[in-house]
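ok so heres the complex, two chains, lmk if somethin looks off
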Amino acid sequence: MKRLVSMTVNGEEIELAIPPYRTLLDVLRNEGRLTGTKKGCDVGDCGACTVIMDGSPVNSCLVLGIEAEGATIETIEGQHAGPDLPHLIQEKFMDHGGAQCGFCTPGIIMMTKALLKENPNPTESEVRFAIAGNICRCTGYAKIVDAVLAAAEDLRKGRTL
Amino acid sequence: MGVEGIGARVARKEDRRFVTGAGRYVDDMVVPGMKHAAFVRSPYAHADVKKIDVKAAEAMPGVIAVLTGKQLKGDGIGNLICGWMIHSKDGTPMKMGAWSPLAVDRVRYVGDAVAIVVAETKGQARDAAEAVEVTYREKKAVVDPARALAKGAPQLHPEAEGNLIYDWEIGDGKAVDAAIASAAHVTRLHIVNNRLVPNAIEPRAALGHYDKAEDHFTCWTTSQNPHVARLVMSAFYNVAPENKLRVIAPDVGGGFGSKIFIYPEEIVCLWASKRTGVPVKWVADRTESFMTDAHGRDHVTEVEMAFDKDNRITALKVDTIANFGAYMSLFSSSVPTYLYATLLSGQYNIPAIHANVRAVYTNTSPVDAYRGAGRPEATYVLERTMETAARELGVSPAELRRKNFVTQFPHQTPVIMAYDAGDYAASLDAAMKAADYAGFSERKKAAAKKGKLRGIGMSCYIEACGIAPSAAVGSLGAGVGLWESAEVRVNAVGTIEVLTGSHSHGQGHETTFAQLVAQRLSVPLDTVSIVHGDTDKVQMGMGTYGSRSGAVGMSAVFKALDKVEAKAKKIAAHLMEADEADIVIENGELKVAGTDKKLPWFQVALASYTAHNLPAGMEPGLKETAFYDPSNFTFPAGCYICEVEIDPDTGVTEIVQFVAADDFGNIINPMIVEGQVHGGIAQGIGQALLEGCRYDPASGQLVTASYMDYTMPRADDLPSFKVSTSNTPCPSNPLGIKGCGEAGAIGSPPAVINAVTDAIGDNDLTMPATPLKVWTALKAATRH
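and the predicted structre for the whole thing:
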């Protein structure tokens, strides 16, 4: 039996009929057609499905869709500085080569946003700790860390998230 | 170098979609009417399949079909093959056991597929898969290759007596034995190269679609080489003729070798789509990936290295057992032979080398190429041995290496390879300087004051890339040629499309290939598009692996550009009434040198397509193709230095410094090259300290089948890396490129283990050097 759930996704209020067992990840990808959020393990180990829910980063594979009733969800598709303008963090990932195959990238960008909201001035080891729940097999993390630190530097210069 | 051309650190074109979540991977694809598949997999490592009862499953909600191996065989679908023939030293061909895409009467590893369920939803397919009743009669399993070779071991395939696939050798055994007998010193080691799971973060997936009206198949798949997939599925698996099968590898989320091979799932999804009349999509879950992706490494080696009284190497003797798992994967046979033993000379002058390799079936996942493929195993054998020899001889590890370096080129090794160029001392010097090698003893003292054990280790690697001259690999048993194709289309209004048979799954080809075009034709990067990964768009190609896309794929583009440039100059000369030899290409224009006459690219392109005024006899159009077959392998080489600090109370190893000095020849985009090196080093550090695939020896169950059991390197496990390159151009391809994709994974494991063993003074540590192993080794040393 499906349940009616409403949530705000990337600023837009949506109402969906979903089975109660469906994860938020599957709801976003299937019903929401927001495929930018990736499924890497489906059990909360890899972080590819990270979204921001009511201001906090979550593995969307560990949240049921019905738990998101009334929640505000931010996904990678909602991140931009303006029409056709990349978000600050996206811009830094491009400048520093923080993406390779791109599969873990949306999750890491969302985790970065959550980190910088809480701590706009992180050290390298704070960045590494913050993204330790997101597995990247391609980059060895070095250029991701560079990108996050560069975004933080621009925040200090007055740019916004 | 222009701002966007060869050598420029430009941001990647493909990143615009990756950072916005707009990438399109197989699991993101939706085809009208698409249904979902789940596989029924063996829970046993080894068993006879007595009966498969699908009635209950067929009656489950949403189920469209449950299909088994008998039906698959009945429809004439063929067995999977290994495409590289190796002959044993007695002249007999390798013993390939039958591998049916769906097992019929025997399963040989945990995860072996026996049936497919197609249902309306993925959940329904999975539920029904659990309802398929398979009656197994369990047999004894064997997971250790040495045990598999022993008398009385469980036998996997009737074709391979004693589970032996081949017993192969290379080199001069007699000369090696004589040199060892008369040596001033012999270093002997027992070396284990641990089994790894590649773990691309995008799980493997396949979407098969049979179009009845057209009698045509389309397969979207997570492949590094869609053309090879189509070739093999047509020629051997009888899925469909090539002209009736389109294979598309869209955005692919990492491969590292594991997505080279053609697996049962894509074949079965295509077949099931025809059987059911609906498009069938399968996406592996993570545990399925652990169980069924081809694994890497898994060698056990005895090595002897002989030295004369001046510490010069006189011989190397290697005896390796390679675990192949339950079936021979597509290129498995080449990995511990021509990709391994041919690199055993390393960077050194070694007059005599002999290697013996036995390939063995066990009840484990198939093993095939994983980042580096054979070359990490060779480098680990050699560089662990060099470091150990230096310790035994009481000499500096750097100086022992330096004394034995090859310094004259070309250099013919005793194991086939002919090195064309290199400067190994330059990389060693650069790495030692960057690591402040001379200051290590002070740092060690400082660490000791904090109660920490500090160690330093190095590794000097060489690899063979640019795979490969087709005639050469053909003579060694390869079933395919390893050239690459390119097509350059200058469109009528001047934009450019480059079609390549290479495939990008993280390497950034859409940028680097475009940089080459931007440089050659003097056009903006944004006007160049790279097209790849679709057999309907690109005629033929061999795909991406073995760090070959730059050296081979871009060289094909280079050749096609030569032809485009020549034709465009002819047209421009004709239009401007000038001599063809006077035409130069600058700032997006074709100019007559020494005059103010010029035509922008788009006008020349348009003229070629309107064909109103072309030189007499010239065909219209501005589109050229080229096939490039390399004349030699390329030989990237370098030196890695790792420094560690170990807490003796916990056994935890911290990498405090990691230096890489690589010689990759010419470089197209330094940012991308650095990223490739970083990623390779991370995988190498993972192998050395964290990752190890384990099977239960009695039951054959895969113990490490999730990220909770198999330790992946995470951001807080790794240091920053100090990387640098030197650039001795490769003489065998027009761009002077050597390749950079695998170096990090090849060079780093021995550097890390040499550092850890230096710190703890125990030379017998095996990878992964977990805190438990290190702590145990330290306790054992205290007791003695």
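quick notes: Chain B has a mean pLDDT of 97. thats all i got rn
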